[in-house]
Amino acid sequence: MTTPTAISPAPVLMPRSLRQTAIGILVVGHLLVAACALADLDRFFANWLVLFVFAATIGIGALFLVALEYVVNARWSIPFRRLSEHLAGLIPVSLLLAIPLFLGMHHLYEWTHADVVAADPILTQKSAYLNIPFFAVRFALYYLIWLLFYRLFTRLSQEQDRSGDEALPRRGIKLAPPFIILFAFTMSFAAIDWMMSITPHWFSTMFGPSAAVGGIVGGLALLTLVSAQLKIQGMLPERIGPDHFYNLGALLFGLNTLWTYMSFSEFMLIWYSNLPLEMTWYLQRQEHGWSLVTLLLVFGRFVIPFLALLSRPSKMNLNRLRWVSILLLATYGLHLYWVVLPGIPHLHDGPFSWMDLGFPLTAIGYGLFAWIWRSSRAALVAARDPRLESGLSFHL
After folding, report:
1. What is the DSSP-derived secondary structure letter of residue 362?
2. Cα–Cα distance between 72 and 50 in angstroms, integer?
3. Cα–Cα distance list, 350 to 202, 293, 346 (Å)
4. Which of 258, 259, 249, 245 is nearest to 221 (CA)?
5. Worst-scoring range by mean pLDDT, 332-336, 366-370, 382-386?
6. Among candidates 217, 248, 222, which has minimal Cα distance to 89?
7. Which of 169, 217, 272, 369 has a 20 to 30 Å separation from 91 between CA atoms?
């Protein structure tokens, strides 16, 4: 057993300017969000749903990366695991963001209107699943599972910082497989509940799995952005070098390509079958200006990142990793916007409005506060992990 390298297990306080920036962004964001609520409640709740899903899925995706690191036991990823734990702090933050959604369900989901359900045979048949009490029970179950494993993984990691017990990583290895299995089911069903049920007549068996992989890509993009930024600022150990970032970039490249493959396969099969009930969902996103958003997603979510990370040197270039990660996060939010808003009847008329501007700012502000909160509680690297020395010594 190798001895862990001499790295302090103490938390690293983020600069005061970061907190001030987060406060400023949140103030501006909330003012714009409040203006949107006053102008158009339907648009407010639709955008808030996008904000909530963005924060929740990225946090859960980051927790998936923690579990994946334990399962595969790869050397290169050991120094990044604590950063993933910090980013998973978006899970409890997103739970608070869910409160307005329960107040605005009637603005988002037509199956919450008893008169609409009674007049629609399809919705009547689905009413045993699509009803507010069962929706709330499923929601509570998802978060009970996610928060439980979030607590178990982070407590395990922080206990290791205090005690240095070399047996603790084995407990993480035992926890990880059950979480990965539960992640697949809960993320898939949550995507169906939160987003697909906006258009309850439409269905796709690939929607849930594709959303789960999308959340992992979002979590990985945020991890890559934070890791590259911290490395540039000299806040990560010097021994975390180009070989570590190459693997981080390669994983981002591969998973984003997988998400693109799943999304295109879903579209191709539905388009090829040419059934009106299934095609309606995509037709809504090809009319009234939404085709422009579709085109932006094709290039911003796949073509540009694919070409930017294709070569080996590009995966070691910290500046390139940063801007590609920012692009993927921005287009992930745009993709959720593209999924949600056209399904709301009068919002189908066209994308982009001044009323949408406050929600990305609010997401950034809450994300910064989640990072400041988590990084103040534990070090950026799991200093007393017995495998850390092996991880820092990794070379391709």
Report:
1. H
2. 32
3. 21, 10, 9
4. 249
5. 382-386
6. 222
7. 169
